[in-house]
Specification:
Layout lengths: L5 H13 L1 H34 L8 E6 L17 E2 L1 H9 L3 E9 L8 E5 L2 E10 L3 H4 L2 E6 L4 H5 L4 E5 H7 L10 E4 L2 E11 L12 E5 H7 L5 E2 L1 E6 L5 H15 L10 E5 H44 L1 H9 L4 H39 L13 H27 L3 H6 L2
Parallel strand pairs: 5-10, 7-9
Antiparallel strand pairs: 1-12, 1-13, 2-11, 3-5, 3-12, 4-5, 4-8, 6-9, 7-10, 8-9
């Protein structure tokens, strides 16, 4: 078969080496197209890693619900009524909404949005956000345990005066080499024992910077701040394989019924759906990848056109040679294979060079983005499947570039080719 004949490959290498400058300039367009495609895809993946990395292990199937003034009068209650969730809502949600997995009621110390509570230890003081939480909150919004432990159910049941603090709270309230575990801090005049020190996982900050937060048992905060059975808001996750939007809709309906809210009042219950926002980001990155492929393939296609034009010139230069081969019995198929194979080899070599340079460039810049924990672009990389796809694209486009010149070659008549000057 002509593809495996040594003479065929000798002719190809001879043709490429004979016009080295032309071969280089022609292949440069393909190399640049593949290089740009690989580098842009790697940068796109780095951007995706950076944004999704900000979520850390945050539960992306979660949603949040809080109360707002009503906008519709309902069942004798006036418009603009202020209301609050209550502790009994926790059990109602768990018992009546089967789509719900984790229910984490939340409270904040002081007035909502007041900027933090006064925290004192000896001569040290600061204003930090104090959260009243159940242990389940750390399943939705995980943190890294630096020392000690997190809240547990016993802390809730016994209304213990214990606290988990962020690393910046520790740095301000304690000396550099001092162990905070077991020590006490005073929050709004009440003493709490520090049981854990944590740092954030990712950069999602739902109620503020977790480095400057303090977590105490939900029941303790209710008692200390005299909140009675009030719940500030709910953090909830849907069960696996169930959309958070489905669970959120049912939770909203239940809470609206329990608190005498009009079904038409869409403003009485505020909320934020993490799953929907995450889907928007996923769709955005799909669009970015599509644009990258279009731009990269467009650049590659420009290089392919250059190769096709050069191959037309090659066919013109080798008109007599093709005529002689036709005269001594060469089949049109062998002529076509010769031209297309030469085009594929040139495209493949140029493409592989561009591919290797693109991968090398990504590896070279990767340490620059890995050094910063909060870098916007993280770990720019190319998937193996993308590399394989790029190689397939190179081969296919190389064959396409040689098709028109090959078609012209087989249309050359032997007698006309021998007369060609």
């Amino acid at each position: 078969m002509i593809v495996f004949e040594r003479d065929t490959w000798n002719e190809i290498w001879l043709s490429l080496r004979k016009n080295r400058l032309r071969t280089f300039l022609t292949g440069f367009g393909v190399s640049w197209g593949i290089l740009m495609l690989i580098f842009m895809l790697g940068a796109g993946n780095g951007l995706k890693n950076g944004v999704t990395g900000d979520f850390g292990d945050f539960a992306t199937n979660s949603f949040f619900i809080w109360t707002q003034p009503t906008t519709i009068a309902y069942k004798g209650f006036p418009r603009g009524r202020q209301f609050h969730f209550i502790t009994q809502d926790i059990k109602a949600i768990k018992d009546q909404i089967s789509e719900v997995d984790i229910v984490a009621p939340k409270l904040q110390g002081g007035r909502w949005g007041s900027g933090g509570d006064n925290v004192v230890r000896g001569k040290h003081s600061g204003s930090y956000t104090v959260n009243g939480d159940y242990p389940e909150v750390f399943k939705i919004d995980p943190v890294k345990i630096k020392k000690g432990r997190l809240l547990n159910n016993k802390d809730i049941e016994e209304k213990r005066k214990v606290a988990v603090i962020g690393i910046r709270v520790r740095d301000v309230m304690f000396n550099q080499n001092e162990n905070p575990i077991g020590e006490q801090i005073r929050i709004q005049g009440v003493y709490f024992t520090v049981i854990g020190v944590v740092s954030p996982k990712g950069n999602v900050n739902m109620n503020g910077d977790k480095k400057e937060m303090i977590w105490i048992p939900f029941s303790t905060l209710q008692q200390v701040y005299n909140y009675g059975n009030t719940v500030g808001f709910f953090a909830i996750t849907a069960k696996p394989n169930i959309s958070a939007s489905v669970a959120e809709k049912k939770v909203r309906q239940l809470l609206a019924e329990r608190h005498q809210i009009s079904p038409k009042d869409e403003m009485a219950l505020g909320g934020f759906n993490i799953e929907e926002e995450f889907k928007k980001m996923t769709g955005l990155f799909m669009a970015i990848n599509l644009v990258i492929w279009v731009v990269g393939l467009g650049t590659l296609f420009a290089g392919i056109i250059g190769i096709s034009n050069i191959m037309l010139i090659v066919v013109k230069e080798r008109t007599k040679e093709i005529g002689v081969r036709r005269a001594i019995g060469a089949t049109p198929f062998s002529i076509v294979v010769q031209i297309i194979l030469e085009s594929v080899v040139l495209t493949f070599l140029a493409g592989i060079i561009g591919l290797l340079i693109g991968v090398w460039a990504l590896e070279a810049v990767k340490p620059m983005f890995q050094s910063a924990e909060d870098a916007f672009i993280r770990n720019p990389e190319i998937d193996v499947n993308i590399v394989i796809s790029a190689i397939i694209v190179i081969v296919i486009t190389g064959a396409f570039a040689g098709f028109l010149p090959a078609k012209r070659a087989i249309n050359i008549k032997a007698i006309d080719a021998l007369r060609d000057e």
